[in-house]
Design brief:
149 residues; globular; two-stranded antiparallel sheet; 40% helix
């Protein structure tokens, strides 16, 4: 299964289209897919999935979405699937972001796309830097004790 990695910065164009990294578009082409799946993610970003990765989430009767609390599970599914949509890639390698998605992720012009393995995340530049400063940098030493990759 393909994996997304790396951090790239792009700008939304005046029509709210976002250019995707060539490697991401190549992965979609390799799958012979016509679109990514785009939905709201955690921590105020958007999640972008290849069709194969989306199907993997839905596999096994959506086992990945099972939780100990049925009410929270239902709420998360509504959050996740209710905001999901197909994201067609145009001939220039861009996807169109809806007003609801842009508002949720506080996307204005400067964006950051972060590959995180089974998906990519789309962040506002400001929100990404704040998250990085508050959640990643302070924990780098701790990560080295937890993960031995």
């Amino acid at each position: 299964m393909p994996a997304f990695y790396g951090i790239t910065q792009y700008r939304l164009d005046p029509k709210n289209r976002l250019f995707l990294p060539a490697a991401f578009r190549a992965a979609l082409k390799k799958e012979k897919g016509g679109h990514f799946m785009l939905t709201t993610g955690l921590n105020g970003c958007l999640y972008l999935f290849l069709p194969s990765q989306w199907e993997a989430l839905l596999a096994n009767n959506m086992q990945a979405f099972r939780g100990a609390n049925p009410e929270q599970e239902r709420a998360f599914k509504r959050f996740f699937f209710g905001n999901a949509q197909e994201a067609q890639v145009d001939s220039a390698g861009r996807i169109l972001l809806s007003a609801i998605q842009r508002q949720y992720a506080a996307l204005e012009r400067e964006t950051v796309i972060v590959g995180v393995g089974n998906k990519a995340e789309i962040w506002s530049d400001k929100r990404w830097h704040k998250y990085n400063d508050e959640a990643i940098k302070p924990n780098e030493a701790r990560f080295s004790k937890i993960y031995d990759i």
